[in-house]
Write the structure tokens for this entry.
Amino acid sequence: MIKLTKLNEPGILEENAENWKSLYLAYKTGDKSVSKNIGTKYSHKEVKTALIKETHGKCAYCESKILHTSFGDIEHILPKSEIPEKCFEWSNLTLACPVCNNRKRDYYDNNNLLIDPYEDEPSAHLFFAGPLVSYISERGNLTGLKIDLNRTELVENRTKHLKSLDGFIMQIQNTTLPELRTALFDDLRKTASISEEYSKMVRDFIEVFESKVSTVNG
Ligand SMILES: [Zn+2]
């Protein structure tokens, strides 16, 4: 999980969110004149496009690239079943992979909120030791367990991802030229840019690796 920044609210929401909210709340309280489709209006392609852009096409929770494997779900950070008022609220929408979305389901406890990657700084709550997430805070721990951030297939994908960096690691370890080492590190850091899959894990990995290399090389 990495810190995300909201883009501007899509026009379709700016224009309709208030009206949709009123209709949805009426529907939820039994108004039969409102079509049940009202509850899906947030999944407009304009909204989806903006969410794909701001999440870099990754799940907001596990950072898996989701667009090539699945369509990706529009996710309500606070569940619409519990907080229907926020069903169409731009700040409450993000993109999640189907597994994280399903794991998180309708969890809501106002006194024990999960980490919100827009409102919170995820690095203050969790870090990576190799392919595994470790926790710095109880909220981080709660979030990780609820979403199951160390689930088997995710750890396997992260392990493969780290393995793909072996070439860089070997080159850096074997070089005796400080200038070359710096250039290789610059290249390695590109693999941890915000748009890359599992960027938080790769950043944490590079930080540890860099401190080891600098200890060895003085
Ligand atoms: Zn996910």
Observations:
- The longest strand covers residues 73-76.
- Helices lie at 11-28, 45-55, 98-104, 138-147, 152-163, 166-174, 178-190, 199-217.
- The chain is about 45% helix and 5% strand.
- The mean pLDDT is 93.
